[in-house]
Structure to design on (271 residues):
């Protein structure tokens, strides 16, 4: 069967400009409701890739996301949130985007069409067999991403992908593909919508599950989070109060002394 980009198929809606604001919002939401069910169908694929990611990280390897445009930005966002949320070092999860950091905020023309820049960007990070690379591309046809995964495969580096088109070149290139079929977008071809939402959901699942497997969560709490603002300090104090049954002043003093929720709890329990 010939490869067909369902992400480029005509929208199920027409004359969008004639819809009222309420009709537009309602119809976008109607389409968005289908995304989680599409992700659910892909859980076996997500399980396979997440298991490999967890194993690589446990052995000291790194997780790389590589993408272009919206897909690249989503990878960068997920990677950037891992250190403050889970307390892992910068560089354990890395997001690479075609066009470099400038492309996070504005489009860099034709950056995604390069057949060698993706691999060069990975080499600049000293990529090795200890690591795993996940290519992110809604279309599954982005040269920057596909060529990077091809070189990874040649160099015995584990690869996965997140895409929204079945049978795409990217899905056929990745060793452990995740394909979430979300169907046509509300605005034809605007894969920042349902496809982007699906990619974000899958990224949340992969990184959160891997971090739990690494022991970065206790119970259901982010005990290794970075205390980078007053909200998080207050959350940390409340975590300590709940875990070891001390008053707020004692919890605050423990957190101030140990600079970590986990360390504060461990010290108290071992005292």
């Amino acid at each position: 069967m010939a490869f067909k980009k369902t992400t480029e198929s005509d929208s199920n809606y027409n004359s969008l400009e004639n819809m009222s604001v309420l009709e537009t919002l309602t119809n976008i939401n109607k389409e968005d409701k289908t995304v989680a069910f599409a992700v659910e169908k892909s859980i076996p694929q997500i399980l396979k890739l997440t298991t490999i990611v967890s194993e690589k990280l446990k052995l000291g390897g790194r997780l790389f996301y590589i993408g272009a445009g919206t897909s690249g930005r989503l990878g960068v966002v997920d990677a950037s949130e891992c250190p403050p949320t889970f307390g892992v070092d910068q560089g354990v999860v890395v997001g690479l985007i075609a066009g470099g950091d400038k492309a996070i905020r504005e489009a860099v023309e034709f950056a995604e069409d390069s057949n060698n820049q993706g691999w060069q960007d990975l080499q600049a990070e000293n990529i090795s067999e200890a690591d795993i690379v996940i290519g992110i591309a809604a279309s599954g046809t982005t040269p920057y991403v596909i060529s990077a995964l091809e070189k990874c495969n040649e160099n015995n580096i584990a690869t996965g992908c997140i895409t929204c088109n079945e049978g795409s070149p990217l899905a056929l290139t990745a060793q452990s593909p995740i394909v979430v079929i979300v169907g046509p977008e509300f605005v034809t071809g605007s894969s920042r919508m349902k496809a982007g939402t699906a990619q974000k959901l899958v990224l949340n699942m992969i990184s959160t599950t891997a971090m739990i497997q690494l022991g970065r969560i206790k119970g259901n709490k982010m005990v290794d989070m970075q205390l980078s603002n007053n909200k998080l300090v207050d959350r940390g104090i409340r975590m300590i109060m709940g875990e070891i049954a001390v008053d707020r002043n004692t919890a605050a003093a423990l957190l101030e002394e140990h600079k970590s929720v986990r360390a504060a709890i461990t010290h108290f329990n071992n005292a």
Q: What stands out?
A: Residues 3 and 127 are 31 Å apart (CA to CA). The mean pLDDT is 95. Strands lie at 63-67, 93-97, 132-136, 158-163, 176-179. The two ends are 67 Å apart (CA to CA).
